[in-house]
Amino acid sequence: MNMIKAAIFDLDSTLINTQKIKERIFDFIKDFSGFDNADTAKLYKAARSRGGEITFSLNSLEAQLRARVKDFNRRRWTDFVDRFDREDGSLIIAGAIELINFLKAKKIPIYILTLGVAAWQESKLRYSGLDKILGESGENIKFTTEERTERGKVKEIKEILRELKLKNCADIIFFNDRPDETRAILAAFPELRVIVRREKKDKRHSDRDFEELKRNQQVIKVAVDLNLIKEITELL
Ligand SMILES: [Mg+2]
Question: For the chain, is the Cβ count within 10 Å smaller at the N or the C terminus?
Answer without folding.
Answer: N
